[in-house]
Automatic annotation (TrEMBL):
Protein name, UniProt field: Down syndrome cell adhesion molecule-like protein Dscam2
Organism: Cryptotermes secundus
Sequence ranges of Low complexity compositional bias: 1835-1846
GO CC annotations, alphabetized: membrane
Keywords: Cell adhesion, Disulfide bond, Immunoglobulin domain, Membrane, Repeat, Signal, Transmembrane, Transmembrane helix
Species lineage: Eukaryota, Metazoa, Ecdysozoa, Arthropoda, Hexapoda
Superkingdom of the source species: Eukaryota
All copies of domain Ig-like, residue ranges: 39-128, 139-233, 247-337, 341-428, 434-527, 532-618, 623-715, 720-807, 817-910, 1330-1418
Transmembrane segments: 1637-1658
Subcellular location: Membrane
Length: 1935
């Protein structure tokens, strides 16, 4: 039962009160909903946000709604924006803040990204427009103004030159003339100066006086606010021409300008020429040019600048500026794009729509251009589907049918290239039909308990529930409780709870949910066991004519039958009655006489128990109205009208009412009355009827059974009357005129027009409607372009059938103003011919005609070429304008104006002067193919005659132009063409001519184009293949025929695939290559090729084909050939190796062959190897049996022993891989005899017998058998036998018989049986107990570092003392060795040094005894001796030899290796190997290696670290002539001219600097990929000296190349460098006052003094005097190199001198014998300290690549020899570094400081202050060598090399490098950067920078003029010196 308390009212009875919950709750719910509102932006972020890194940026976003919306940000891909400290902050109020940041912290994903603001509440979610955030890193820049040459009288243009990388943000604010006068943009300077929005300064009518003025520009950075003025002002240089100069355009010829609507813009058009050219502007409209005349908004400034004020959208288009003088002409084309701000508004902004209906949003958009309109719902894009329909023009979104989830916020986004906007609307759900969410089910229950029925429904508004039982209301008693309530989700829950269920409560229960939209119900039976019972049925009323349905309310269960009776007769009795088994009675079309009465329902169960109940049925009859006659065409105004309404049948009482036109009748306003005649009729009376009474009158009759209505139309006839009376009209000829004539009445009157005959009214004729006369239905008469003929009197008449009608006469007067019958005329004339232009004007005379051109009136004084002639006509005048000789500029519009007293008119004549077209220009190649070229060109001036054809002529470059060259003709409508049938990879000359009907133009400029390559069309030939090894095939071939190359062959693709036995290889070339593996091979010396295919499957047949390729791709494949690799050893072991014991000394082994793919040839046989797998077995020997079968028996094995068995297959080449060991045990057998036995007298009557276990137990010992024989008086007294346990080794027996002799022996037993006995020992009777030892002498083999106890059990009286000796030296208890109380000897933590013979001796007066233990200690193996046998580009071949194995066989080796700045890696090698090749190494890189061996005791010590190099060198720089080409403004860098040095180039760094003005390098890119063959640097200044620095990086390091170059002049002329500076004659300066002289002198003196001091220092070093001298007298360069060595604290190679850069990596290899043994200023020295007394194996088991074995300490003295001192971040005194000792010499095999280190690594980062790095590496001191740069003009390039794979570069794309030193604690595991240690080590570190002693001071500095070449630590030689590889090596020197 549902408990309803707390959710609403609990109802008892009183049915109409049961619904109080819903009536109370639902209004409250709706009142809350009415207050809700979705989010709407108050402050939406802008579309673009730009800021400087120095200022930071902030983007605000706020919104309102109810409830208050939350705000958030997301990226363009939808991911949420998270806070990044110091870079991006998200505030709760919706602001997105970008704090100021240094340039190095710039992140592209943060500072140049797309963001969107989101706002949401429970009503929905909205998203803002795209917010493009862009942070600009502040960069230094300069602005410059260059001098400009101008012909006197022309316009000069000065431009403010801003670097391209900041030009977007820098704008010109003003120009400064002579440092005093400011010229601002958009200011009136009297026409002399104009500053355009681009910042260019235009100086009109430049004369000689202007040449003395200087002009500087001032700019401001709009993000940072920086203001810069040009450093040097610019001037205009006035030139005087010597003759006519054709106009030369000084601005861009084809330019696009963009402007916002409403702004002003000036279109540039400036040229230089003599005479000073004239400028005319035209606008292109539908491919026709029309001249632009000045107006209110459009004006032409001086020198052809076209200014348009308050630009409108219709101003958009192409403008042409035509410049000409007597020497020639030129054109400038400007395309103007006008944008208007975008706007959007969605209608309706809020709408409520019912579920299932249609919702429509219309987006009203504005602005221009509109590129895209999109719709969003709840911040997600809407995708068009069957329910969402999006239409354009207008933009509409239609949602149909509406579903529940469609509510929320809708947005319309409008965007174009420049901006984006949006509008928001809200969709709320309206009324929705009820929907049942839950309902009760049918139940069958016993009476008594309670039951609860529940229904749940949803809808809008929330529905009400009604419960019925068998169609009747739920019984009204206290046992029934009905209630309902509303959940927070607006679901309505209703219950019926029935307590104390009774039989009569059974029946069909129905819950009906109903709201204002519809209703839904659910029914189910509740069956209650019991006798039949029928509930009381109330009186039922039926409506006659409708169906009557009665359901018998039967309770009880089960019920067998339900029947209906009437008057004792069982129904049905006629066709209209139907009775259903569930007790439902249906009577169709109920009738009062036949169907009213009493009906009886009877229910019966199977036991024949019955129940009966009567119900009274009453039938009522609705009214029926007698049809009423229509009242049309009967009444006229003033008559009386009566409408009567009678009913034919219907139950009384009946009520009547009247309606008019569907609305209740208002009697008072109509002047009508109703009169009730009797109970069955009524009348509507209108005493005086008017036209306003017309309408439809309805009589409505109603009683309790229903209602009926009948409608009568009523009309009133009215005679015609004027509504618009016609009137006289006066109109000018040619205009349109409308004569109005309108009347109303009923029926609607007809209106006719007639015209008077003659000039007076009286007689009229029917009006003949002419084509220019229109008659409208409302009576209006329209004359189009009325003429004088239409003048006269007109009669308008209105008639209907009522009365005589109305009429009116009017007069229409027509005046004839001057007008032109032809408004527009076009006339064409050929250039140079005469033109005669006529215009004819009609109208009332007198007429005056005037001609204008370009807005100016034409008269005789305008141009002598013009003459005008006039002539009068009958109806007007004609005027003719003659032009004697036409020029191109005559093309334009001539205006002819005519005027008289009545009006004026204008005629426009477009005069087109035609000529042959100009030559096509701007020829471009749009698409280059191998056999075709697609060209495009700009349509030239067509000569005002449509271009009919373009003729493209072409030839090979090597040919000359013929009279009839190859040509292609295309229509003049297109400006693109494709030239076909060309040859691949050929250079062609092309030119184009335009043709119109007047002739051909001149040929265009010739362009040279090379067709692209095409894939080769021939296959390589003579393919040969041979096997070199089991995995290698050598393939060679010849190139295709030369004519099939189709370009330059770049290489070949060699395809190969395994050939299965089912595949047949066709020898013909095949295009099916998708199953092939391909290898790329470069072209060989003779264009053929060869390749070694490696890594192939062994003993496998391969199908091989070769394809040639060029830059376009691969050609056809060659014939397929086959080859098979050689046989090899099997690479997989035999499978399923199994073994079983046959006997105690034999095993049977079986196996299966290796898998087919692992046999690698024909298996010849198998080798079965076996050896004992016991722990005690230490012999490194295996026995092998060879067989050809798949099973074998191994005999002669040890009994009960585990054997490790492995099987290998072998081919003719050798043995394959062994199978994993399989362990088998032989069978048990009887044991051997116990190894030894002793019998001693331990007391007067006790004999103690001891023995050793058997040497060969041959099984599990189950028991020992003790035998004792007694011999007394020479007679045996029997043998005593006793079974002892398997662990017993001592037995005591009593000596029972005095004087008898005792014999003892012992046997051991296994489950197989009893073994042999020991020797027999005899004891004779004695009363003395001599000293004896019960223990046995033995040899003991043990692993090191264990505790062992040597027992020495003794007997004797008196009790003897045990004395232990080692090599005759008495042992005592001390340290690890001690003698226990029981006499045993304990050795703790046994070491290898503890090996030896230990003896225990006992003695008393009766005797003595001794035993000896031979101790053998097994230890880990010694370090192998490792060497590098061979070095390759990517691999190293290693070899090693074993040393002492520690007494236990070596099980394997571990090789550890690392590259410079890399992590340690390790590789495990099997024991039988003594060599290995490391693959996949970095090219040209130093590697450190060491090896360890391990046995079952542990891992031994590592060998010495070996330093070696893979082959390869740093990149080799090309010559300047190969590397760069330069023109006036562009430098082209040919990166493919670099040689990679054997190691592939990874990337380039490109920098340049202006050698004249700047000392800072400008970084162009720090990650140029080697695939970019050509790289361009743009925007250089003409005739300027520059330096280019290119750094190439590969794995071996980097090479820096510096090139000096000078850009060409603007005219393309090479600048000749100045050999000597210009002489200044202003004044003489003494040399000591000239800083350019004195500074180099002082530096040189200091340099020489330093050299001298270093030389003295070196001389004193006796140890190096023989090695340090060069082979010949040192040159200056050599001395400088020597000095640099000393300055850098490096050990320098002996005799290295100056070496050219070598490709061979051997020159990199380190050999300690080749270096001068200088003591490094920071060398480490060993302090005196006693060595450890322990042996080499000090107790540390090796557990990783680092060992901490015998420790020694090295002291670092922090005090320098000089005034300077080293500054420590954290000072400790004394400081120690722990290193490893070897051979009496201090050395750490793992210290970085002993490696051949590389220069300039990123990984040598500074250690943070206050933090001491716990690293195993020694402190190594490094200093970067400074590199000198050759003086410009002396040395054109310089280079240096670095072996570091990385470099210190600005993080444009950041390159991460791993730190070499990681912070380490106490760990015994591998670390990523080195070794772990078992013991804690103390280390120290120096501070950020080590200051060397003063005598080693490096004071060399470079001048700023050398472009700061030392910044990246590179060095170049002096002039004439060959380039030299400079490397830095850091050493630790051990003393």
């Amino acid at each position: 039962m549902s408990i309803l308390g707390g959710h609403g009212c609990t109802m008892r009875g009183c049915g109409h009160l049961r619904w109080c919950w819903s009536s109370l709750l639902l209004p409250a719910v709706w009142s809350v909903a009415l207050d809700l509102q979705g989010p709407v932006f108050i402050q939406e972020p802008p579309h673009r946000v730009e800021f400087s890194n120095s200022s930071g940026g902030r983007v605000d976003c706020s919104a309102h709604g109810s409830p208050q919306p939350e705000l958030g940000w997301s990226l363009g891909d939808g991911t949420p924006v998270v806070q990044i400290p110091d870079l991006r902050l998200v505030h709760p109020n919706g602001s997105l803040v970008f704090p100021p940041f240094p340039a190095v912290h710039y992140r592209h994903d943060i500072h140049t990204a797309l963001y969107r603001c989101k706002a949401w509440n429970q009503m929905g979610q909205i998203v803002s427009r795209d917010v493009h955030v862009r942070a600009v890193v502040k960069q230094k820049y300069e602005v410059q103004v260059y001098d400009e040459y101008v012909i006197s009288g022309n316009t000069a243009v000065l431009r403010c030159q801003v670097p391209s990388y900041v030009a977007e943000y820098v704008m010109v604010t003003s120009w400064i003339q002579d440092s005093s006068v400011n010229i601002y943009p958009n200011t009136d300077t009297g026409g002399k100066y104009a500053v355009l929005t681009s910042g260019d300064l235009y100086i009109h009518n430049a004369g000689p006086s202007d040449g003395y003025k200087s002009y500087a520009c001032r700019t401001v950075h709009r993000l940072t606010g920086e203001v810069h003025s040009s450093t040097y002002p610019g001037r205009i240089i006035i030139t005087e021409p010597k003759g006519s100069v054709q106009p030369r355009i000084t601005v861009e010829k084809h330019v696009t300008r963009q402007v916002k609507a409403g702004d002003d813009i000036t279109l540039p058009c400036v040229a230089q020429g003599f005479p000073v050219p004239t400028y005319r502007w035209f606008r292109e409209d539908r491919e026709q040019l029309s001249p632009i005349s000045g107006g209110e908004r459009v004006s032409v400034l001086a020198a052809g600048l076209l200014r348009i004020s308050k630009v409108r959208l219709e101003d958009m288009g192409k403008y042409l500026c035509w410049v000409n003088n007597s020497a020639g002409e030129e054109t400038v084309q400007v395309t103007l794009t006008v944008t208007a701000p975008l706007s959007a508004h969605v209608q309706p902004q809020t709408q409520v729509v019912d579920v299932g209906k249609e919702a429509v949003f219309q987006c009203i958009i504005g602005g221009h251009p509109i590129a895209r309109v999109s719709w969003y719902r709840n911040a997600k894009p809407i995708v068009r589907d069957s329910r969402f329909e999006m239409t354009t023009s207008p933009e509409k979104l239609t949602v149909r049918p509406l579903q529940k989830e469609d509510h929320g916020m809708y947005q319309c986004f409008v965007s174009n290239e420049w901006e984006m906007t949006q509008a928001t609307a809200e969709l709320q759900l309206g009324d929705a039909s009820p929907e049942l969410l839950y309902w009760f089910t049918e139940q069958t229950v016993q009476p008594g308990p309670a039951i609860s029925l529940k229904c749940v429904a949803s809808g809008n508004p929330p529905p009400q529930f009604v419960w019925t039982l068998d169609g009747f209301p739920v019984p009204d008693n206290t046992r029934f409780l009905v209630g309902q309530y509303v959940t927070i989700h607006d679901d309505v829950i209703s219950h019926v709870n029935i307590s104390n269920l009774k039989e009569e409560d059974g029946g069909e229960y129905t819950c009906t949910a109903r709201n204002s939209v519809s209703q839904v119900s659910h029914s189910a039976r509740i069956n209650v066991y019991g006798l039949p019972y029928i509930r009381v049925m109330p009186k039922i009323t039926a409506v006659a004519g409708s169906d009557l349905v009665i359901k018998c309310p039967v309770a009880g269960y089960p019920i067998e039958s339900i029947a209906w009776e009437r008057d004792g007769t069982v129904l049905p009795t006629n066709r209209r009655q139907r009775v259903y088994s569930n007790g439902t009675l249906v009577i169709e079309h109920a009738q009062r006489q036949a169907d009213a009465g009493t009906y009886t329902c009877q229910a019966q169960n199977r036991q024949k128990h019955t129940a009966r109940r009567d119900v009274e049925v009453q039938v009522i009859v609705p009214p029926k109205i007698l049809p009423i006659q229509a009242m049309t065409n009967l009444l006229r105004e003033g008559m009386r009208a009566v409408i009567s309404c009678h009913i034919l049948e219907g139950d009384l009482p009946v009520t009547f009412r009247w309606e008019r036109n569907g609305q209740p009748l208002n009697e008072q306003s109509l002047g009508a009355s109703t009169r009730r005649l009797d109970e069955y009729s009524t009348s509507l009376i209108i005493e005086r009827i008017t036209s306003s009474h017309s309408g439809n009158y309805t009589c409505v009759a109603q009683n309790v059974a229903g209602l009926e209505s009948f409608t009568v139309p009523l009309t009133v006839n009215v005679p015609p009357r004027w509504t618009v009376e016609p009137a006289d009209a006066n109109v000018a000829s040619g205009q349109d005129v409308m004569l109005h004539c309108q009347a109303d009445g009923y029926p609607v009157p007809s209106i006719t027009w007639r015209k008077a005959v003659g000039t007076h009214p009286g007689e009229y004729k029917e009006f003949l409607y002419e084509p220019n006369v229109n008659f409208y239905r409302n009576g209006s008469l329209e004359f189009l372009h009325i003429s004088k003929d239409s003048e006269g009197y007109y009669l308008c008449e209105a008639k209907n059938e009522v009365g005589t009608g109305v009429s009116k006469v009017i007069f229409l007067k027509v005046n004839a103003p001057a007008y032109f019958p032809q408004k527009v005329k076009q006339m064409q004339v050929q250039k140079g011919e005469q033109a005669h232009v006529q215009c004819t004007a009609l109208g009332d005379t007198p007429i005056e005609i005037m001609w204008k051109v370009g807005g100016k009136r034409i008269g005789g004084d305008v141009d002598q070429r013009y003459t005008i002639r006039e002539q009068l006509l009958d109806d007007g005048m004609v005027s003719e304008l003659a032009i004697s000789r036409t020029y191109r500029h005559d093309t334009g519009v001539l205006s002819c104006y005519a005027s008289n007293a009545y009006g004026q008119d204008e005629m426009v004549i477009q005069l087109i002067v035609q000529e042959v077209p100009e030559m096509p220009k701007n020829i471009r190649v749009n698409d280059q193919q191998s056999r075709s070229l697609q060209l495009s060109w700009t349509q030239p001036y067509a000569g005002n005659s449509a271009i009919t054809n373009y003729i493209i002529q072409y030839k090979l470059v090597s040919d000359v132009w013929q009279a009839q060259p190859l040509k292609l003709t295309v229509p003049g409508t297109q400006t693109t063409a494709t030239v076909q049938n060309l040859n691949p990879a050929c250079s062609y000359h092309l030119r184009i001519m335009a043709e119109n009907r007047l002739g051909l133009s001149d040929p265009s400029e010739v362009i040279q184009v090379t067709t692209q390559e095409e894939v080769p069309s021939g296959a390589p030939t003579d393919i040969r293949a041979e096997a070199r090894s089991s995995t290698e095939l050598f393939v060679s071939w010849e190139p295709p025929e030369r004519e099939f190359w189709n370009g330059n062959l770049l290489g070949y693709y060699v395809g190969y695939q395994e050939q299965s036995s089912l595949t047949t290889v066709s020898s013909s070339p095949s295009t099916t290559t998708h199953n092939y593996n391909f290898k790329t091979v470069e072209v060989g010396a003779q264009y053929g090729g060869e390749v070694l295919l490696q890594g192939l499957a062994k003993y496998t047949t391969y199908s091989i084909m070769v394809q040639a390729y060029n830059s376009r791709g691969a050609g056809p494949s060659s014939e397929h050939i086959t080859a098979r690799t050689q046989e090899d050893v099997p690479s997989l072991p035999p499978e399923n190796v199994q073994c079983s014991a046959l006997t105690s000394q034999s095993l049977q082994v079986s196996w299966e062959p290796p898998p087919l793919e692992g046999r690698n040839g024909v298996v010849v046989g198998y080798k079965v190897s076996h050896q004992p797998a016991e722990e005690w077995y230490e012999k490194d020997e295996q026995e092998t049996k060879v067989t050809t079968s798949l099973k074998t028996t191994i005999p002669s094995l040890r009994k009960y022993t585990n054997y490790s068995i492995s099987v290998l297959a072998f081919t003719s080449v050798g043995d394959g891989v062994r199978s994993p060991p399989t362990v088998c045990c032989t069978e048990e057998d009887v044991p051997s005899a116990p190894a030894d036995i002793k019998a001693v007298i331990s007391s007067a009557n006790i004999i103690l017998v001891s023995w050793l276990p058997p040497l060969h137990p041959n099984g599990q010992i189950t028991a020992h058998t003790f035998y004792m024989g007694i011999i007394e008086d020479g007679k045996e007294d029997g043998t005593h036998k006793r079974i002892l346990g398997p662990q017993s080794e001592v037995y005591e027996t009593l000596r029972l018989q005095e004087g008898a002799t005792y014999q003892f022996w012992v046997t051991a037993s296994t489950k197989v049986g009893e073994g042999a006995g020991t020797r027999v020992v005899t004891i004779t009777s004695s009363n003395k107990v001599p000293a004896r030892i019960v223990s046995f002498s033995r040899e003991i083999v043990t692993p090191w570092k264990k505790d062992i106890t040597l027992p020495c059990r003794k007997v004797g009286i008196p009790v003897p003392q045990a004395v232990w000796r080692l090599q005759d030296r008495i042992m005592e208890t001390n340290g690890r060795k001690q003698i226990n109380k029981d006499g045993s000897f304990l050795i703790k933590d046994i070491q290898h040094s503890d090996e030896g013979n230990y003896s225990c001796t006992v003695e008393n007066v009766h005797g003595s005894d001794e035993i000896v233990y031979s101790i053998r200690v097994r230890v880990p193996p010694d370090a192998p001796t490792l060497s590098v046998v061979a070095s390759y580009v990517d691999s190293l071949q290693l070899q090693w030899t074993n040393n002492h194995d520690g007494g236990s066989p070596v099980l394997g080796y571990v090789i550890n290796y690392k590259r410079d700045h890399g992590d340690w890696e390790e590789m495990q090698i099997e024991a039988k190997a003594n060599s290995h090749t490391l693959h996949n190494l970095w090219c040209g890189t130093r590697y450190q290696l060491y090896i360890t061996a391990f046995n079952k005791i542990g891992t031994g010590l590592p060998c010495d670290i070996i330093n070696t190099y893979t082959k390869g060198t740093v990149p080799v720089k090309p010559k300047q002539s190969q590397m760069i080409t330069v023109n006036s403004t562009v430098l082209t860098i040919w990166l493919d001219s670099w040689v990679d040095g054997g190691c592939a180039i990874l990337y380039f760094i490109i920098e340049y600097c202006n050698a004249q003005r700047s000392t800072d390098w400008t970084l162009i890119s720090n990650n140029v990929q080697p695939t970019e063959r050509v790289y361009n640097i743009l925007d250089l200044v003409p005739a300027t000296k520059y330096q280019l620095r290119v750094t190439a990086h590969n794995n071996a390091g980097s090479t820096v190349a510096v090139y000096n170059f000078t850009t060409l002049t603007a005219e393309g002329v090479t600048v000749i460098p100045e050999l000597s500076p210009p002489v200044s004659h202003s004044r003489e300066v003494p040399f000591y006052a000239n800083i350019k002289v004195i500074v180099p002198v002082i530096v040189s003196l200091g340099f020489l003094l330093g050299l001298l001091g270093v030389a003295v220092f070196i001389r004193r070093k006796k140890s190096q005097s023989q090695e340090a001298h060069m082979g010949e007298s040192p040159s200056v360069a050599q001395m400088q190199n020597q000095q640099n060595r000393d300055q850098q604290y490096l050990a320098v190679r002996v005799g290295s001198g100056q070496q050219a850069l070598s490709i061979d990596s051997a020159s990199y290899k380190t050999d300690s014998a080749d270096y001068i043994e200088d003591i490094c200023p920071y060398a480490t020295f060993q302090l005196s300290k006693p060595p450890y007394s322990e042996s080499t194996y000090s107790g540390n088991v090796y557990s990783g690549p680092y060992h901490s074995v015998r420790g020694s300490f090295v002291y670092h003295d922090p005090k320098p020899a000089g005034a300077e001192s080293y500054k420590f971040r954290q000072q400790k005194e004394p400081e120690y570094t722990k290193v490893r000792r070897k051979g009496g010499k201090l050395r750490d095999p793992h210290s970085e400081s002993q490696e051949y280190d590389t220069l300039g690594s990123d990984s040598e980062g500074e250690i943070p202050g206050g933090q001491v790095a716990a690293s195993q590496e020694l402190v190594s001191f490094r200093h970067r060598m400074a590199r000198e740069v050759g003086k410009p003009g002396v040395e054109e390039s310089s280079s240096s090399s670095e072996t570091s794979p990385s470099d210190t570069r600005k993080p444009y794309p950041s390159r991460k490098s791993k730190n070499k030193g990681q912070i380490m604690g106490k760990r015994q595991v591998r670390s990523s950067s080195g070794y772990s240690s078992h013991t804690e080590e103390n280390t120290f570190s120096f501070s950020d920078r080590i200051h060397p002693p003063s005598r080693f001071s490096d004071s060399h500095e470079l001048s700023e003029a050398e472009c700061d070449m030392s910044k990246l630590g590179r060095k170049s030689g002096r002039s004439g010196a060959s380039t030299r590889l400079s490397r830095e090596t850091s050493f630790q020197i051990d003393v």
